[in-house]
Amino acid sequence: MLEELKKRVYEANMLLPKYGLVTFTWGNVSEIDRESGLFVIKPSGVDYDLLTPDDMVVMDLNGNKVEGRYRPSSDTPTHLELYKAFPEIGGIVHTHSSYATSWAQAGRSIPCYGTTHADYIYGEVPCLRCLTKEEIDEAYEENTGHLIVNEFKRMGKDVKAVPAVLCKNHGPFTWGKDAHEAVHNAVVLEEVAKMAYRAETINPRIQPAPQELQDKHYYRKHGVNAYYGQN
Amino acid sequence: MLEELKKRVYEANMLLPKYGLVTFTWGNVSEIDRESGLFVIKPSGVDYDLLTPDDMVVMDLNGNKVEGRYRPSSDTPTHLELYKAFPEIGGIVHTHSSYATSWAQAGRSIPCYGTTHADYIYGEVPCLRCLTKEEIDEAYEENTGHLIVNEFKRMGKDVKAVPAVLCKNHGPFTWGKDAHEAVHNAVVLEEVAKMAYRAETINPRIQPAPQELQDKHYYRKHGVNAYYGQN
Amino acid sequence: MLEELKKRVYEANMLLPKYGLVTFTWGNVSEIDRESGLFVIKPSGVDYDLLTPDDMVVMDLNGNKVEGRYRPSSDTPTHLELYKAFPEIGGIVHTHSSYATSWAQAGRSIPCYGTTHADYIYGEVPCLRCLTKEEIDEAYEENTGHLIVNEFKRMGKDVKAVPAVLCKNHGPFTWGKDAHEAVHNAVVLEEVAKMAYRAETINPRIQPAPQELQDKHYYRKHGVNAYYGQN
Amino acid sequence: MLEELKKRVYEANMLLPKYGLVTFTWGNVSEIDRESGLFVIKPSGVDYDLLTPDDMVVMDLNGNKVEGRYRPSSDTPTHLELYKAFPEIGGIVHTHSSYATSWAQAGRSIPCYGTTHADYIYGEVPCLRCLTKEEIDEAYEENTGHLIVNEFKRMGKDVKAVPAVLCKNHGPFTWGKDAHEAVHNAVVLEEVAKMAYRAETINPRIQPAPQELQDKHYYRKHGVNAYYGQN
Q: Is the ipTM, as predicted for this complex, more than 0.90?
């Protein structure tokens, strides 16, 4: 069932250690098949070295396991809420990648300091508040999803233009049109977080890049007038 | 004698260079067989490249070498005191891993700034005082063990919930139910120390993660209501 | 056509991931054949893993593609302006290498703090202003080239003695007598940017290296009295 | 001639890239044969990838090349002065390793913040002044050697107990009883420089490790009462 998708999700998960984004099992990738309304996600706490495509877990959007010998990632309810709220999203990644998580622990959004950031993410990467005790006790992972959804709506942010978020004291989620693009954005986020960290150390009075430069780079790669790459 | 255990301790020692936790011979791992009251530890100052399972040294809890052609690690008396005082501990690691040692050199406990920390360690990683001149002169390594034991008792800390400590101006010790888990915790500690360092640079007015979030993540992975992983 | 040159430019491009200077496709190298007035450059947005010498794009100095199945790098107009203005330059590199880009994002020139810098770059690595909205809208990449040319002329800097520049909120360009030397200088710049970052953290009141030491090291490796190396 | 020594010096040089201490050709190792008064050193500016034992250059203590097809390292006169002044030294290393060089660029001695440092280096790693214009113009590399010799004598430092020095705005030299030990000390210095950098960031009011702890660790590994390792 969904063998192709399981293979793709498996491969996307294996990119996390390849790109240095995870220690042990601290990460997970999923991708959704919009036609069937099923998504495939990594099992919880299984070593990357031991993972196979067959270990992937198939879930429906009501949170029922449809196939798989393992429990799904403990973050599955967060993925599920994002898939339900944002039909533009096809793949989701959660990691504890080092620099992005450090920004999340610091409780700060990552300003757009340059074109590396602007090429992929429009404006700052928002850092959301912590969940309240009530939200944590009631349904931690699901409410993490609700918070991301509500805050993006409140801020008027487009999930296609801002494919990354930081959860305070926790870590990043990224997404994309599929699992592979979501991993790509996780790599971009880590690199952007690293360079923003260093840029602030070099110049404590640093300002974000001018809006016109951000626009230029973002629209050079996205939208109808894009001219970067071969498409 | 204890061939299985020697092999396991050897393999756990070899994980230290694999995870980038040691330079040269700056680290050691041990594991105890509680039935016989014997523990196995790395020999002192032997290159990781040359190490074999047969080089491991078997010690009893009175500090006598029971088997082995080499001298045991110079830190053996510290391991011994921890095994005597804490029956819950089955394996111990000492390294000079870079970020954890930097916190130890700075003389600061590592606050819990996020869920990566809270997933494994309940509350801050304590940094203990230096030994006094008298303690150093009398029995340096043994008194290091006594200090850890006494301070954990004084602070009311449970060694299962806080599997790591920093010795001021020296470096970290970690432990676990066996050698492998102790190494796992050494990796976690280094990652946590790195992200705490960066988070403080990003936000000098940073505060620890809210207690309810720390509790949620710790108890998601530990105790009777744990639901992370496959067990 | 220009098969030798395409091979050399291909190989120089492949050095960027080898030296850790690029993530994904964030970099490009070109080299010019001054006799024919043609230069060869990497195609835009093609994975390094998939690149072959035949994928390289041949351009003339009027900005026309002379050969190649792909679009040239989006930064091609910048390369072109530099080749037109500086006949001493034979190869050009653009990357988003982490430390150099962090200085660019911080909007600061890199002072010469030591002999590693002075061995290759005479005086500071200048960080130029951002383009204006008008310059961006009119012809972003071409005007980036104009800015570099005009600023080097205004500052009286010799492109042979200062083979590197930072574009504010963007990243570095380096150059050399050919593509290979330009890559060499990109590696030097990244290392110099890293050590300047760290040196400022260690000593916030740091001063540039004395002029006589800068001169000694630069002229030990360059000019008629050079005595470093085997030539 | 001195084939054994050339092989050893070659191998010691090849350890520099292995341990990540050099970029390109920025480092050199030598070792002296005290009986013949000849020392062997890396040639100047030759790629590590291309180096063979036969490329090593044999020098006498008057600065004459005795054998070798290449010019010796441009830093040869510094090595020579150290060998002449300090009969205890058998091997010397110069690198631009990143953290040690950053301290040199910052013009600061590295305080002893912990036992990693104290295990190998007794007290701080001194950072010497820059050479004067006169000293540079007269004989730069030779006068670098004189400065190290004179400053160690003035400070009453024993080169066996302090096997490392920083030359301001330049970089480190380390030494040992042979080339291999000198490389070992170069690795130690880089690690110590890195952890001191981080420890100061974590605690800006940090103090050096207590003298009694420094003594304990140094004498645990050195002198008649040493008990670390197998000898």
A: yes
